[in-house]
Amino acid sequence: MAGVKPQQSPWALRLAIIGSLMLITGGLVLSSQDGAIDSIYDPRERAIAEITAGDSQLLEIVSDGCYYVIVEAKVSGVDASLKPIEGSAASNEEFESSKCLTDWTPMASDGTTFLIVKEWVVDKDGEAMLATTCSDEDCDNADVWIVSPDGWEMDFFDSTGLVFGCGICCTGLIVLPVAAVVRYWSRANSVQGSVTFIGPNQTITQPFQNQEEIIAAIQQHRMQQNPNDESLEQEEQDGFVDGSKDVMQGRLLTTEQVFGLMRGEIDVEPQQKVQDPFADSRPQRIEPKTKVKSANTEEISVWDSGGSITKSPSEQRPTRKKTVAQEKSPSKDWAEWDDM
C-alpha cells in the first residue's frame, strides 16, 4: 500500500509543459533578433558620430541629454573633453563629467566588449566640440564612438520580434509558478489513502483509490459469493450496487467510513475474535458447603422432662472460668419446676 501513488490533477503537468514550451519558443525567437538587438545596444550602430582617437568632432547637443564616449575594451590611453561652442569658437570651460541615469549598456551580438571612456549630462542646447586625445600606442588609429542612449526604451518596442519573444518568455515565467501552485493544491486535496478488501479465504486484494474501482471490486466479490443471484446481474447492468445488506451485516463500510478511511481520518482494521489460549488451565471455583444441623429430638425430650443433657466429648467446648462469683439461682431442680 505504501507504493501506491495518489491520483493528482493533470493540470499541473500540463501547465508545466506549456510554460517550458513558452520559454523555449521565446528563447528561439530572441536568438533570431540579433539585428534588432544590435540596433539598440551596439555603439557601432547607435553612434551619432564616429572619429579616430586624437581627432575632434562638432556635435549637436540638447539640454539634459546623455552622451557617451566609447571605445573597444582592448583600447587604452584614450581621453575626451566636451566644450560648448560660443560664437564661432569653443569655450574654455568644459562640461563636467556626470553619471548618466540610464540602464543602457553597450554590447554586441558578436561578443565584442566595449569601454565607456567618459559620459556627460549637458544642461544647454546648441553645439559642442568633442576633442579626444591618445596617450598610448594601443589607441593609435582606434575608433571612438559618441553615443546618445536617450529613448532607447521606445526603440525596443519598434521591433515586433523582440516584443513577441520577450512576451512569450515572460508568459512562460508566469505559467511555471502557477503550475507549481496547482500541483501543491492538487497534492493537498488528493486522496491520501486506499481501500484494500479481505476475501473470505483471507486473501488480500490490491489497494483501490477511486470510487469506480471500489464498486467494481464489490461487484466481483459478491458475484463470487453468489454466482446464481439474478439481482447481482441486474445491478451490474444498471450500474447500481445495493450494499445495504452488506453494511447491515458489517461486511461493507458506509460512504462516510470509506471517505474518512481514504482521507486518513479513521483507521478501520478487521477485528477477529481470538480464543483464550488459557481457557483449559483456568482454575475452577469451589464453593464451600454449609452443613445443615439436624434437630436432635432426643435431647429436646430430655430437656422437657427436666433431665440433664450430656454432650459428647467432641461437642463439649472449653469454658473460661469467671473470676467474679456468680449469683446462685434458687435451689430448685427441674422436677420441682415441673410440679409447679
Describe the structure.
There is one protein chain. The protein is α+β, with helices and mostly antiparallel strands. The protein has helices at residues 11-31, 34-41, 43-46, 152-157, 160-189, 211-225, 230-238, 244-248, 255-263, 297-305, 334-339; strands at 49-52, 56-61, 66-72, 78-86, 89-90, 114-121, 126-134, 143-147. Among the domains are: 11-33 and 159-189; 47-150, Jelly Rolls (Sandwich), CATH 2.60.120; 192-270, no CATH class. The protein contains eleven helices and eight strands. The strands form two sheets. It has a four-stranded antiparallel beta sheet. Strands 2-7-4-5 form a four-stranded antiparallel beta sheet, with no helix packed on it. Helix 1 packs antiparallel against helix 5 (160-189). The two termini are 104 Å apart. Mean pLDDT is 76; it is low at 322-328.
CATH class of the domain at 47-150: Mainly Beta
**And the CATH topology of the domain at 47-150?**
Jelly Rolls
Helices and strands, in order, run as: HHHEEEEEEEEHHHHHHHH
Largest sheet: 4 strands, antiparallel
Number of helices: 11
Using DSSP, what is the number of strands? Answer: 8
Q: List low-pLDDT spans.
A: 322-328
